């Protein structure tokens, strides 16, 4: 079975194409600047030269048609016909309380995703455009949606409810949902396998640290608490997001600088975090380089970023009454050895003993960065959200075929 995985944004679309026989990536790519005359398509077929086109791509339907053209192109395609695509899997950020697992797309599923637009106005409408675009280009191909929030539906009320009037939850479903669930689930499974222990017997803290970042407390294999909230804005300091702050900051900033709701939302999501504090960049590589060159604002941004991650790790160790393993993943978590070092140095009270040589190794494989004697093991596990989406799509479409006797 061959599965196309799509992650649609408001003006972009990323894709990976899998052969599920051995879970190899046949091709991957992206379409950027959708809606402009100078849209960019980058196609990277396995074993063949990359392709880059600049052309007018005004909507997602056209973007999907262009990527399909690349997959079947006589020179740089990887399949003979569109009919070779057996299913399409989509990343959808917000599933609310409606979805605790991945599902095959039907009219009811599409209605529920639309009903969640208010909870994820920056993401779900774009994902819906991706689903509709595939349907228009390949009407008979089954589609599956995999939700970032689904893994966190195991959280108990004491961790997902906010201490605000309950009418806001009952009427509007305002609560903690959490995100990056596909990544947290994947790396926790990998970590348990690496440690050779059953996942349901471990207390684990997974740290997905990229431009967006979140920590999750995983108790007996299930999400118990997570740092992102109703939206991906809550929690850790991120590349351009503020993370946790006093809610009174919002009306005060609006009053002092005559900001409207849209402007303050943009400030907190796109103009805060590392970018705001450093005044330099949202990229941790540039922050570390500037800090090591003596830039005080970059050093402050780094210290704040590290401190907030470490504070969440400590709070989740308290929440679970202990921790067996801490896992770092995603772009920053996998590659910023200095950040991991600074965090682990201050976790000695938990019994963390960092092995600096292991921590500084350049590797793309699962690995331990603590000593053998460390009471809490710290691991680096590369995430693979696209593979999880492909696997869920394969499982659901296969099961449907079995039920139908196909």
From TrEMBL:
Residues at which ATP binds: 14, 208-212, 283-285, 331-335
Pathway: Metabolic intermediate biosynthesis; acetyl-CoA biosynthesis; acetyl-CoA from acetate: step 1/2
GO molecular function: acetate kinase activity; ATP binding; magnesium ion binding
PROSITE patterns noted in UniProt: ACETATE_KINASE_1
Pfam families attached to this UniProt entry: Acetate_kinase
The organism's place on the tree of life at top rank: Bacteria
EC top class named in words: transferase
Residues of the site described as Transition state stabilizer: 180, 241
Subunit structure: Homodimer.
HAMAP family xref list: Acetate_kinase
Protein name in UniProt: Acetate kinase
Organism: Xylanibacillus composti
Top-level taxonomy: Bacteria, Bacillati, Bacillota, Bacilli, Bacillales
